Amino acid sequence: xxxxxxxxxxxxxxxxxxxxxxxxxxxxxxxxxxxxxxxxxxxxxxxxxxxxxxxxxxxxxxxxxxxxxxxxxxxxxxxxxxxxxxxxxxxxxxxxxxxxxxxxxxxxxxxxxxxxxxxxxxxxxxx
Length: 127
Prior knowledge:
The chain is mainly alpha-helical. The protein has five helices and three strands, in the order αββαβααα. Strand 1 and strand 2 form a beta hairpin. The N and C termini lie far apart (35 Å).
């Protein structure tokens, strides 16, 4: 399956130093965590690892997510562990609000504020 990166722009790319550190770690220790993809081969978590490892990358498929859930998954998997500047965090939070709205439109009964916050991996006050 050819991997695609339609969600890579939800968060900024790694800084050059961070990317090089990841590359060195993968060379020294190998791939510890699978790159997570949806059932169409879209990378949800690990597009930098996939870029570095190329066709040798190990993947794990997450199935059954709606489009909003896929975007929320990207934030939950990456937002807290990434070293983002204050302005990058502000930009990401604006995108999170759009995802929260998308989830609410998909199913308002299912997607309460508490559930949306938990799915995004943020405090309820963020949404």
